[in-house]
Design brief:
Strand order of the largest sheet: 6-5-4-1-2-3-12
Largest sheet: 7 strands, parallel
Shape: elongated
Structural class: alpha/beta
Oligomer: single chain
Number of helices: 14
Helix content: 25-40%
Order of helices and strands: EHEEHEHHEHHEHHEEHHHEHEEEHH
Number of strands: 12
């Protein structure tokens, strides 16, 4: 066993961003993921060892303009439980590999479709990226400081949270249904809807009158003094998230403001700008490491802000093995963790048809036919 998804086979049509992230999550936890690249338009980068989202799976190139290439993929999908693709609506249908064809071949198949706008709607056939999808859902509007324009939260909310992770959930849910009923289906995963779903609590707070539609003035969006980042004397940063009253008291005690009457009314928003400035001045009196010594180990809801270079080496991350090394390069470890079916350490993606000959033999190809596919550049 290499994770709870051992025994699950998934076909991934090569792409960028959220669909490969979904495939990575499935592969991380034991699924056999076969990545199909298009010959002449391969989505992999020069060195697969440096593309971490492609890890723990096999890949080979297929000429999807050739009838023999399309047939190869159809055979592969007949022997799989799920397919993942992230193209614009209609692309897979034009290749002859749309859901009507593949579910006709394999009625139990789960067909996962990852797009920004969804399979239909006024924007469905237009180009876009994470920033556009989260703009439409309201998520981008809420990100940023007061008086400033919206700040993109990298491409975490659309591509990966509302996209890849949402598709992984949808595909696995549909697989459970298919295993119970024998009925496959299409999973239409749109990043606009996924990012909107991630905003459910914020929409709920707004419905209750507890969230202003202006950014940077609320408890969780840098408006409050007790949920923000602060610069230290060495130009580094710390994070504070002391929301609950008991944690807020612990924070004030550790930072030296327990007796300051100005901090007693924690949720008086009129005081927040003044209190933020007081905290900013206090944090600038010590280095980040000095504040770690003062605040770590308490319930002050504190953590240092680690850079990408620093994070793998932080003692907590090292103790938890939150990062792993593959080919000498640190990358995030598979998550979550399992008590009975631990996932195997990730490995770099293995490329090339020669690595998949046993798979092709399982699909019914003879050694001579495999050689012919390679010689004709149908599969490489």
């Amino acid at each position: 066993m290499n994770g709870p998804l051992t025994g699950l086979r998934v076909v991934e049509f090569a792409g960028l961003g959220p669909a490969p992230f979904c495939a990575m999550m499935l592969a991380d936890h034991g699924a056999e993921v076969i990545r199909v690249d298009r010959i002449g338009g391969r989505a992999t980068i020069t060195d697969p060892a440096k593309e971490f989202t492609h890890r723990s799976r096999k890949s080979f190139g297929v000429d999807l303009k050739a009838a023999a290439g399309v047939e190869l993929v159809r055979r592969l999908c007949r022997k799989s439980e799920a397919v993942i693709e992230g193209f614009r609506p209609g692309v897979m249908e034009r290749l002859g590999l749309g859901p009507e064809v593949l579910l006709g071949d394999n009625p139990r198949l789960v067909y996962g479709r990852m797009t920004g706008w969804g399979q239909d709607g006024p924007y469905a056939h237009t180009a876009g990226h994470d920033i556009n999808y989260i703009a439409l859902s309201g998520a981008l509007h809420a990100c940023g400081r007061t008086g400033n324009r919206p700040t993109p939260p990298l491409n975490l909310v659309g591509d990966f949270g509302g996209g890849g992770m949402m598709l992984a959930f949808g595909v696995l849910a549909a697989i459970l249904h298919a295993r119970a009923t024998g009925e496959g289906q299409v999973v239409d995963c749109a990043m606009t809807e996924g990012s909107a779903l991630l905003m459910t609590m914020i929409y709920s707070l707004r419905a209750q009158g507890l969230w202003e539609d202006d950014r940077g003035v609320n408890m969780l969006d840098s408006g409050s003094h007790y949920y923000d980042t602060y610069e230290t004397s060495d130009g580094k940063f710390v994070s504070v998230g002391a929301i609950e009253p008991q944690f807020y008291r612990a924070f004030l005690e550790r930072i030296g403001f327990a007796e300051d009457e100005d901090f007693r009314e924690q949720n008086d928003a009129a005081r927040w700008p003044r209190l933020k400035e007081k905290l900013a001045r206090r944090f600038r009196t010590r280095t980040r490491d000095e504040w770690c010594r003062a605040l770590e180990g308490s319930d002050a809801c504190f953590a240092p802000v680690m850079s990408l270079e620093e994070a793998p080496h932080h003692p907590h991350n090292r103790a938890r093995h939150s990062f792993v090394e593959v080919d000498g390069r640190a990358q995030p470890a598979p998550a979550p963790r399992w008590s009975r079916t631990p996932s195997a350490p990730p490995t770099r993606m293995v490329e090339g048809l020669e690595q998949c000959e046993s798979l092709l033999a399982e699909l019914g190809y003879s050694a001579e036919e495999i050689q012919s596919l390679r010689a004709k550049q149908v599969a490489v």
